[in-house]
């Protein structure tokens, strides 16, 4: 299960006349956790957005399972779970409605498992209240429930633990651990130290900046 | 627990379900924000009211003005509600999730535009008879007015959505949208008012409606492509 | 970067290099500038002094020697902007984005010139500065389309995003232009049954149309000159951190 999932070659990105990274190359294998490190403004989020395919302002090559990513966009998206800065949760909808729409976007997901996922993130009893009545942490949990639903092989998580309490973080870490044990890959940024989720490889963007 | 990775994926029940789900979601969202729901209608009524006050309340004169006034007001009301089409989705990150779906973006976009039209264009069409009474539009013109609105306003929503998609990444897109979209609305305006005038004078409507229908067909085919591309560009920026 | 495709000729990729493009523009500029100067001067002198006066409109018709070329150019400039934008979108070619961006102000200026000369011509012909003539109205809408593209371009901060967004908008505009033109023509016949049309003139004598042709070609050359000047500026501005630009600036 250690075939290369994502391969990045000579990635170059500049923003506002500042080179964020240049000649950035790395691979992400199945069963691997890659943590992107760097100071604020070093381009962590930009890199994750590029990897997920949201941002196209880059030069260089990205391969998904050996194929150039432009050629296999749809297959790639079917295998991708992206958790961004904005949680992608509609404040006017209930957690359940939010997740049902997510299931509709990813046809391979089973809406019947939404309840179970909400229970996993501790939102039982909140299924049918509008999300704007929930706390910030609960809000993010709605979005994190997608991790329990997902069958994607690559998870790209941008600060997944922000506003989550300790117990929630431990549960998420265990979940990430299970995901990689099953051969999935995780690319994430976080300010916390990851514990108990096995080997974590880190890529530091600050050093990249110096080189570039 | 998690499904095993690389499962025998469930057959993509896909497209129809996603279209229906998005349509339902957007209608639900609008219905939960009732104040914004009626805003375009109120705006429509207010603009209409300005003309008798600003020009003349004389019935004959108003009747002559009515087709143009109603169409211009409908156009502005559509435009007013356009900016919010993708903005909330952009702000809360739903748009990112939408663009990362393996399903075609055009499908979701079509559903969103349809939802938008049902709550603006369709609503405007339904209150049009009331407006035509206020502006003394002869009764013969009313079916023509409603038919032309019914066929023309979806095109307005489709074209407006291109503008909304292009400006969604900007802090204030409101005025800019109008600049981008209004020139593109001109053909719909011309054929729309033409249809109403023809109806009033008892001329056959078919030609106008066919033209409006052709514009709608063209819009339905091409606009979702442009909207999808524009959304990807805006989110990428 | 530009993805190589076999069916595209080599110069296409060379064009994609800002540096090469800067140099080739530098080489072409003098030729076009001289051609524009000769054609415009020759055309103007011929048109104003030697071409015969119109039997209906007298000397006032001579403004077509400015009006027609600027109107033609305004339209072809939009087409060029949209095509360049499309190339930039599809092949991620920076130079094409820059061409598209440089086209917009030139085209808008031409549209303004066409409107102004149309208005000036309208005064003696129709007795008023503005008439809702189909061609003038279409030109006004074309100007709006230009202004929209320029407004969008300047509103978006990131240069590549601005270029892509403007490209989409100008393509949408390009699809719409024939529709707008048709609808306005149609509207015009409905509201103003066959007044005096501006440019569709029956069989112009050669002494009239040859200077006109000279002016049109001269305008195109002038357009090429101003486009290349703008493009070179834009290339220098965007590539200011590239080595070759620094060398170039230091060597002067």
Automatic annotation (TrEMBL), chain A:
<dbReference type="GO" id="GO:0022857">
    <property type="term" value="F:transmembrane transporter activity"/>
</dbReference>
<keyword id="KW-0472">Membrane</keyword>
<dbReference type="GO" id="GO:0016887">
    <property type="term" value="F:ATP hydrolysis activity"/>
</dbReference>
<dbReference type="InterPro" id="IPR027417">
    <property type="entry name" value="P-loop_NTPase"/>
</dbReference>
<keyword id="KW-1278">Translocase</keyword>
<dbReference type="InterPro" id="IPR005895">
    <property type="entry name" value="ABC_transptr_haem_export_CcmA"/>
</dbReference>
<dbReference type="InterPro" id="IPR003439">
    <property type="entry name" value="ABC_transporter-like_ATP-bd"/>
</dbReference>
<dbReference type="GO" id="GO:0005524">
    <property type="term" value="F:ATP binding"/>
</dbReference>
<feature type="domain" description="ABC transporter">
    <location>
        <begin position="6"/>
        <end position="212"/>
    </location>
</feature>
<dbReference type="Pfam" id="PF00005">
    <property type="entry name" value="ABC_tran"/>
</dbReference>
<keyword id="KW-0067">ATP-binding</keyword>
<keyword id="KW-0813">Transport</keyword>
<keyword id="KW-0201">Cytochrome c-type biogenesis</keyword>
<dbReference type="GO" id="GO:0017004">
    <property type="term" value="P:cytochrome complex assembly"/>
</dbReference>
<protein>
    <submittedName>
        <fullName>Heme exporter protein A</fullName>
    </submittedName>
</protein>
From TrEMBL, chain B:
<comment type="function">
    <text>Required for the export of heme to the periplasm for the biogenesis of c-type cytochromes.</text>
</comment>
<comment type="similarity">
    <text>Belongs to the CcmB/CycW/HelB family.</text>
</comment>
<keyword id="KW-1133">Transmembrane helix</keyword>
<keyword id="KW-1003">Cell membrane</keyword>
<feature type="transmembrane region" description="Helical">
    <location>
        <begin position="175"/>
        <end position="196"/>
    </location>
</feature>
<keyword id="KW-0812">Transmembrane</keyword>
<feature type="transmembrane region" description="Helical">
    <location>
        <begin position="114"/>
        <end position="139"/>
    </location>
</feature>
<dbReference type="InterPro" id="IPR026031">
    <property type="entry name" value="Cyt_c_CcmB_bac"/>
</dbReference>
<feature type="transmembrane region" description="Helical">
    <location>
        <begin position="37"/>
        <end position="55"/>
    </location>
</feature>
<feature type="transmembrane region" description="Helical">
    <location>
        <begin position="145"/>
        <end position="168"/>
    </location>
</feature>
<feature type="transmembrane region" description="Helical">
    <location>
        <begin position="208"/>
        <end position="231"/>
    </location>
</feature>
<dbReference type="GO" id="GO:0017004">
    <property type="term" value="P:cytochrome complex assembly"/>
</dbReference>
<dbReference type="InterPro" id="IPR003544">
    <property type="entry name" value="Cyt_c_biogenesis_CcmB"/>
</dbReference>
<dbReference type="Pfam" id="PF03379">
    <property type="entry name" value="CcmB"/>
</dbReference>
<keyword id="KW-0201">Cytochrome c-type biogenesis</keyword>
From TrEMBL, chain C:
<comment type="similarity">
    <text>Belongs to the CcmC/CycZ/HelC family.</text>
</comment>
<feature type="transmembrane region" description="Helical">
    <location>
        <begin position="208"/>
        <end position="231"/>
    </location>
</feature>
<keyword id="KW-0813">Transport</keyword>
<keyword id="KW-0812">Transmembrane</keyword>
<comment type="function">
    <text>Required for the export of heme to the periplasm for the biogenesis of c-type cytochromes.</text>
</comment>
<keyword id="KW-0997">Cell inner membrane</keyword>
<keyword id="KW-0201">Cytochrome c-type biogenesis</keyword>
<keyword id="KW-1133">Transmembrane helix</keyword>
<keyword id="KW-0472">Membrane</keyword>
<dbReference type="GO" id="GO:0020037">
    <property type="term" value="F:heme binding"/>
</dbReference>
<keyword id="KW-1003">Cell membrane</keyword>
<dbReference type="InterPro" id="IPR003557">
    <property type="entry name" value="Cyt_c_biogenesis_CcmC"/>
</dbReference>
<feature type="transmembrane region" description="Helical">
    <location>
        <begin position="134"/>
        <end position="153"/>
    </location>
</feature>
<dbReference type="GO" id="GO:0005886">
    <property type="term" value="C:plasma membrane"/>
</dbReference>
<dbReference type="GO" id="GO:0015232">
    <property type="term" value="F:heme transmembrane transporter activity"/>
</dbReference>
């Amino acid at each position: 299960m250690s075939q290369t999932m994502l391969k990045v070659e000579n990635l170059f990105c500049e923003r506002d006349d500042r080179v964020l990274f240049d000649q950035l190359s790395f691979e992400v294998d199945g069963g691997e956790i890659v943590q992107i490190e760097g100071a604020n403004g070093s381009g962590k989020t930009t890199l994750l957005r590029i990897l997920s395919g949201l941002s196209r302002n880059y030069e260089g090559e990205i391969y998904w399972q050996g194929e150039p990513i432009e050629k296999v966009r749809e297959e790639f998206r079917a295998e991708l779970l992206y958790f961004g800065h904005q949680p992608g949760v509609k404040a006017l909808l209930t957690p359940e409605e939010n997740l049902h729409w997510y299931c509709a976007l990813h046809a391979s997901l089973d809406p019947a498992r939404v309840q179970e996922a909400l229970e996993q993130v501790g939102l039982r009893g909140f299924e049918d209240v509008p999300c704007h009545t929930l706390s910030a942490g609960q809000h993010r949990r709605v979005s994190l429930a997608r991790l329990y639903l997902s069958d994607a092989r690559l998870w790209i998580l941008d600060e997944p633990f922000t506003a989550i309490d300790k117990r929630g973080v431990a549960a998420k870490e265990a979940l990430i651990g299970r995901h990689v044990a099953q051969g999935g890959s995780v690319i994430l940024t976080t300010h916390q130290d990851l514990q108990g989720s096995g080997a974590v490889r880190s890529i530091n963007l600050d050093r990249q900046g110096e080189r570039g | 627990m998690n499904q095993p990775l690389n499962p025998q994926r469930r057959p993509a029940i896909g497209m129809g379900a996603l279209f229906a789900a998005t349509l339902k979601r957007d209608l639900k969202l609008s219905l939960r924000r009732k104040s914004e729901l009626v805003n375009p209608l109120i705006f429509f009524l207010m603009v209409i009211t300005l003309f008798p006050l600003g020009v003349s309340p004389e019935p004959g004169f108003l009747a002559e003005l009515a087709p143009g006034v109603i169409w211009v007001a409908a156009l502005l009301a559509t435009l007013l509600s356009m900016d919010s089409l993708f903005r909330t989705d952009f702000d809360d990150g739903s748009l990112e999730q939408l663009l990362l779906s393996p399903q075609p973006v055009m499908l979701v976009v079509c559903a969103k535009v349809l939802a938008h039209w049902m709550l603006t264009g369709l609503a405007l069409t339904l209150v049009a008879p009331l407006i035509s009474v206020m502006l003394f539009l002869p009764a013969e013109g009313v079916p023509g007015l409603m038919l032309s609105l019914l066929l023309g306003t979806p095109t307005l929503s489709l074209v407006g959505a291109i503008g909304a998609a292009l400006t969604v990444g900007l802090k204030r897109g409101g005025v800019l949208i109008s600049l981008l979209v209004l020139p593109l609305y001109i053909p719909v305006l011309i054929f729309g008012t033409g249809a109403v005038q023809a109806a009033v004078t008892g001329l056959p409507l078919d030609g106008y409606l066919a033209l409006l229908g052709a514009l709608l067909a063209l819009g339905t085919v091409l606009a979702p492509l442009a909207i999808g591309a524009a959304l990807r560009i805006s989110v990428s920026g | 970067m530009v993805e190589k495709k076999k069916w595209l000729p080599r110069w296409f990729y060379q064009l994609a290099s800002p540096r090469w493009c800067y140099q080739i523009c530098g080489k072409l500029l003098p030729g076009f500038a001289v051609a524009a100067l000769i054609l415009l001067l020759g055309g103007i002198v011929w048109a104003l002094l030697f071409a015969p006066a119109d039997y209906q409109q007298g000397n006032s018709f001579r403004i077509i020697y400015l009006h027609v070329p600027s109107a033609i150019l305004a339209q072809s400039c939009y087409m060029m902007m949209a095509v360049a934008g499309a190339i930039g979108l599809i092949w991620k070619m920076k130079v094409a984005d820059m061409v598209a961006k440089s086209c917009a102000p030139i085209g808008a200026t031409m549209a303004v010139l066409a409107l102004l000369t149309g208005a000036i011509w309208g005064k003696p012909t129709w007795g008023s500065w503005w008439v809702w003539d189909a061609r003038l109205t279409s030109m006004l809408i074309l100007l709006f389309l230009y202004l929209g593209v320029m407004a969008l371009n300047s509103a978006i901060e990131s240069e590549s995003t601005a270029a892509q967004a403007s490209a989409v908008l100008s393509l949408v505009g390009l699809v719409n232009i024939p529709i707008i033109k048709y609808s306005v023509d149609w509207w015009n016949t409905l509201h103003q049954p066959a007044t005096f049309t501006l440019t569709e003139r029956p069989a112009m004598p050669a002494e009239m149309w040859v200077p006109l042709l000279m002016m049109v070609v001269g305008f195109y050359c002038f357009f090429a000159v101003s486009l290349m000047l703008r493009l070179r500026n834009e290339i220098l501005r965007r590539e200011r951190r590239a080595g070759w630009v620094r060398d170039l600036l230091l060597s002067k």
